[in-house]
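ENTRY TYPE: paired fold submission
RECORD: A
CONTENT: sequence, then structure tokens
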Amino acid sequence: VDEANQLSFKHIGAACVPESLKRHGEHKLAGLVTLQIVSCRDLAMPMSKQLLMGGGGAGAGGGRSGRMVGLVVSDGHVKIHAVEHVATAALRSNWPPGVKVTFQDATVRNGVILIDPKSFVRAEGGVKQLD
């Protein structure tokens, strides 16, 4: 597991996100599912400010109220968006691509994973160089 946390899912991941989750309607991402971050940012902060502040901005540590973390995550085959739907203290807006995030029984609405404290389990690992 520790070794897998350091590798890109593009090379070792098995497809676990069905394309059907990207369709309209409400679905469940059932059970424990670990996905790899492709991109991560605070959607409530203008992109120009994020670039000036080095990516994460004031919300990088998770303490800024009014932030909304947006992720693009992948199982190595399918990319899907995830949004902080309810404030989740363990979530950060400055994680680099390659970090693995684990969700449990997450709701997916209109093709977006809704992140909340119950569905967000953990983040770990990373990839030295993504290709």
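RECORD: B
CONTENT: sequence, then structure tokens
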Amino acid sequence: DGRWDDVAKVRKLMAERDVKKEAGRSWIEVDDKVHEFVVRDRSHPQTEEIYSKLETLIEEMKQVGYVPDTRLILHDVEEE
């Protein structure tokens, strides 16, 4: 649990210094229009269609043998 200890220390320092973490963002351009996505933001007018397509793509990738490398990911379920 050494990594989680490091995470806790960093979060404590951030709180003490009133440092705020910015949400993750991604952008995609479709038909000359840029779409921006922010973590946990479901305000895009086509959210349901987008997430449905993502699920389809994830399933297709699994079917052809894709396995994500998650060894370096720290995921705090409590924060979700």
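NOTES ON RECORD B: The mean pLDDT is 86. The longest strand covers residues 25-30.
STATUS: closed
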